[in-house]
Write a structure and sequence with these properties.
Helix content is about 30%, strand content about 25%. The chain is built from eight helices and 15 strands. The longest helix is centred in the C-terminal third of the chain and has 14 residues.
Amino acid sequence: MILFHTDLDNTLIYSYKHDIGIAKQCVELYKEREISYITDVTYTILKEMKEYVTIVPTTTRTVGQYNRIDLGVGAFRYALACNGGVLLADGKEDMDWYAGSLAMVSENKDTLAYGEELLKKDPNRCMEIRNIQGLFTFTKSEKPLDSVNMLKQAVNTDQVDIFHNGIKVYIVPKKLTKGAALLRLKKRLKAETIIAAGDSEFDISMINSADFGLAPLALKGNKGIGKDVKFMQGKKVFSEELLDYIKANILKTGNFYL
């Protein structure tokens, strides 16, 4: 079995704010408004790949946010939401997996609660604070770097990672990573080979844990990225470039260590 763990936002799909050309199709509606798209090329390759590999969408989105997406290539047997804390098998939450995730982060409850109390007082916060299924904390800030620095000075960073993605600010237990989820699923399914692709700090552990990882050139300078990662050069939309590469250099050749 070959598993292809792929991030969604800015890896396979793009919000309406991004220019990905006119050859695209809507994959997400929110309040009857089109908010996310996939390029036609990405759709075509993804549909073809689905015949050869088990595609596992692996996202920090909540289950509800994930369920808004329809890539048009049919249902996925497995998906990981909430940064890997929730496993969807045939669209249903696997409660044994979720219980295992809660056990993994149980020692971080007090740290998350303390971080949430600090965020309540943060003058830069511009959204309600969300505790995502007891797994991690998320909000938005008008000055995300200031909010992150404030938290890092006060919260036990041996237990949690604190960072921002745009204006979004996260407090995430160190054990709750996409990489850890990838290894858990690999063990459960007895998968032989893992391919992983992503574009952000959330995805680095997943990319590093795979047999073959792909990332945009922008991540090359990140100190956490592995030395064996294949970086796309940005000559096309990232989704198209990475899928083209997998199709031409991995699936056709069987060489997983290029």
